[in-house]
Amino acid sequence: MATIVVGLLALPAGPASTHARTLIVDDDGVQCPNANYLSIQPAINAARPGDTVRVCGGAYTGDLTIDKAIGLVAQTPAAPTVDCVAGGSPGTGTTIFTGAISLTGTGAKVDGFVVTGAPTGITTSEQSSEYQIRRNLIEGNSDFGIELQSNGAQQTVVEQNCVRSNGGGGIASEGGKLRRAVIRSNTVADTFEAITTLGPHPRYDISISRNTIRRANYGIAVSGTVGSDITGNDIDLTNPPDAVLGAGVGVGGGNIGLTITSNTISAVFGTAVYFQREGFLAVDTGANIGILLARNTLHDNLGSGVRVEIPAAGRPANLTSSLLFRNTADSNGVNGFAVTAGNDGNVLLDNQSTNNGRYGIALLGADNAVVAANTMKGNGRADAQDDAVGQNRWIANVCGTDEPVGALCNTPAAATATTAQSATTTVPAPHKVGQSRWPCLRVPVWDVDPLDGGGWVWITVLAPDAPAGTYCGA
Known about the structure:
Blueprint: H1 2-10, E1 22-25, H2 40-46, E2 52-55, E3 58-61, E4 64-66, E5 71-74, E6 95-98, E7 101-103, E8 109-111, E9 114-116, E10 122-124, E11 132-134, E12 137-139, E13 144-147, E14 156-159, E15 162-164, E16 169-173, E17 178-184, E18 187-197, E19 203-209, E20 212-222, E21 225-226, E22 229-231, E23 234-236, E24 246-251, E25 259-261, E26 264-266, E27 270-275, E28 292-294, E29 297-299, E30 306-308, E31 323-325, E32 328-330, E33 337-340, E34 347-349, E35 352-354, E36 359-364, E37 370-372, E38 375-377, E39 382-386, E40 393-395, E41 398-399, E42 402-403, H3 420-423, E43 440-447, E44 455-462
Parallel strand pairs: 1-2, 2-5, 3-6, 4-7, 5-8, 6-9, 7-10, 8-11, 9-12, 10-13, 11-14, 12-15, 13-16, 14-17, 15-18, 16-18, 17-19, 18-20, 19-21, 19-22, 20-23, 20-24, 22-25, 23-26, 24-27, 25-28, 26-29, 27-30, 28-31, 29-32, 30-33, 31-34, 32-35, 33-36, 34-37, 35-38, 36-39, 37-40, 38-41, 39-42
Antiparallel strand pairs: 43-44
């Protein structure tokens, strides 16, 4: 009998012990009389990986730490109860949490809370990954709404949050590395910088997509990213919080293989898409290489649609070996597209630039550029301008006025084979950045050929976080 008892005790636990549980929290026991806990952290401590801590409506205070793969879920999701842009209080039954929430365990999740009254509302750790931050209303924090970090072992997702009226910024990654993260379908408003990945930390495979941004000085700002994208965002910066020149999308240094596509950017108190390292919010000293800026609509901004700033003495280019393709720049205060000296080897292909205050496309000392099949009309001073005629190629552009006169507009395409004009309809999406041989990265760049239109070719560049002294060849 003793042997049988010992044997029974040694048997593995039955299926019921592996089932995920739901632990209920209610601060006063009114909304959820069957609640197990009156406060949140004890429920988190008691939860096992895979469990859900469900928090009923009420007011809760004190900082929280989630160090395991559990879901912290509000009974009534807060973000869907408000018009994030127009303002207003969260709806009845929401869970209001005053304090900071730290996610340190892989797979930790926060869903549906009002998070307020902290230096930073929600912070994740670069030691773990697979975080989920969803449907929260994050407002009234003195620094950032969200500070996002991850080691990238699994994808992190930040989506459908309302992030507004935080003192420094909305969604940021400035304190540590961030890899394999998706920031999508959020609304960010009433802050100096809305979505930023800045500072001296590696950031790989970041996707910033379909976000709505209002009343900020900087919409999206990035530096030091590899193989990342900024896609389909709606950025209207009417009535920014400060009278400071900003940017719809600000690109600092060290971005490699970044795509900026299908965004709509308007009413910026500054430039819609601005490439500048020095004097900007970014600190990465590397060049921006292999950037694809395509199919964006840039209109009614105080400055230019696109401006690539002059790099400081001794610094590499703010933009090189990059493609500006099928963007529309209309009714901007200065230029449609402006590329300055020190930024070489870029291609401007099949863009539309109309009714801008100064120039449609201006090469302000830039060289080794190809300007092909663009349409420029109705711009204030001239449609096309080039300070270094003879050092750049102008092919099959349609425009009415140019500086120097007669040198740039309506230049002929190649007389044989397929012209650049007809080839613009077949530019495919670029290949992904090859990271398998880190720190030597393979990056696609567009090579224009006036006979056959061109195609993607590979170059090898050094990763922004490569060890000092690393050499990747020519």
